[in-house]
Amino acid sequence: MGRMTEPTAEDIAARIRPAMTKLYVMYFRIAEQSDLTGPQLSIMARLKSNGPSRISQIAREEGIRMPTASNALHQLEQRELVERIRDEQDRRGVRVQLTRLGESELERVGEERTKYLAEMLGALSEEDLAQVSEMTDIINKLADNYGADLIDTSNG
Description:
single chain; mainly alpha; Arc Repressor Mutant, subunit A; 6 helices; globular; DNA-binding
């Protein structure tokens, strides 16, 4: 009768939230030495994986409003990291794509941030690192699926 119940999502969230907040703040304090914001990098990464996209599509997939997406893209365009091109299917439409400079900047910042995160993880023992390694697929699955769920429900 004394069988323990499995922890709920709420139990796990309560245990991990303070540490995630602390790590998030520390990570971005270091990462913000880049002059690109998190949202700008997220948009650039999405353009790299999706190819040329309409602003409305970017806004929807990023879970942001059109003016916010438009403003972020304008800032990136000013720095020649993205460019507008005519939509081949609809000549009146415009798509946005990464420039060569945008791709190399995305890669550079990505490598930089991977290095910072590796330094943080380097503070763990080999045993702890092995456990974190086992969790990476689950963390990536959560990141991929959670955002998609939010976007899907907001459309209906």
